[in-house]
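<tokenise_the_fold>
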Amino acid sequence: MRYSVFTLMKQALAGHRGWGPAWRDAQPKPAYDVIIIGGGGHGLATAHYLAKTHGIANVAVIEKGWIGSGNAGRNTTIIRSNYLLPGNNPFYELSMKLWEGLEQDLNYNTMVSQRGVLNLYHSDGQRDAYARRGNAMRMHGVDAELLDRAGVRRMLPFLDFDNARFPIQGGLLQRRGGTARHDAVVWGYARAASDRGVDIIQNCEVTGFLRDGDRVTGVETTRGQIKANKVGMAVAGNTSRVAQMAGLRLPIESHVLQAFVSEAIKPFIPGVVTFGAGHFYISQSDKGGLVFGGDIDGYNSYAQRGNLPTVEEVCEGGMALMPAIGRVRMLRSWGGIMDMSMDGSPIIDHSPLAGLYLNAGWCYGGFKATPASGYCFAHLLARDESHPTASAYRLDRFATGHLLDEKGVGAQPNLH
């Protein structure tokens, strides 16, 4: 069924009794051309582009829970392409362009809202760093505006501009950035992939790999063996666990990232705002809640919950930036497991084992990268070569020294 205003009118006249399931809940077949482990945004996007762009539809997406149960439903929904380094900037701009046409591509309302992303700066040195980033963005054809204090005040007059410790001097604005509805993204990709013949298999956990020497030939699951010519991993914070089943030790650590949402209030924050004197970011959802977060918890964990010191630090950052939110009640919080790479940039590459491919190490960039990640991973799986836009995301860069240290803090995953 194609969604449209005419379909909606037809179903309304019929009492909305004719809507079918958005995707097929498939049973596993004995073998596939490609198996993708992980039914999150990256895995489902990969399956969609394999079928759409490369004509490979004999694909299974294996998810241990249900679609939307992982990090896809546990993030703060921000999309942007305001990156500095040549290895990152073109990739995230490809993702932004795919976001801009995603709803037409999937025939699904993913609620992409390009309301703007503003990174505040609080010192002359930070201003110069943002000017450099903005110039790098514009050299790659990405929109960027460097605002002074007056320009920021016109957009966001409720900020604390005269904080004695962190006075706001200006900000770097990407107007094309914004937010999207996180679970709608995975539902849309699942529906589009299923329509093209992809099998989406829920409640099917991978417990091991089938091997023929150094080649991976399939997976062991809680629903039996499934063979495949190629197996792609897109399991986010569980990358180390799943890779260990294949005997691999990857340059990735798992950390918890907490996020928070407040009670619903009237429209207050027009876009996405980040605090330059600490790691705090905030936007307002369509339902009215303030959605915000900060740094990862500094210790390794596979738990989907965090610690109280991080809650305190995030709230302190919010109060320093906009004291008015101190009157708003926090409604709930959650945690997602982040696959933090050594340099803070992702990996889209062959693994050391033939037939096994990696999509991992997304750190904070996972959600915003969803379309480009799936597009480039599908290219790798279909053609056995990296997409030009993702050519810097090689696994061996950690051995050769070709790191993509966007944040500039060295090979320390807990600091990225």
The longest strand covers residues 252-264. The two ends are 43 Å apart (CA to CA).
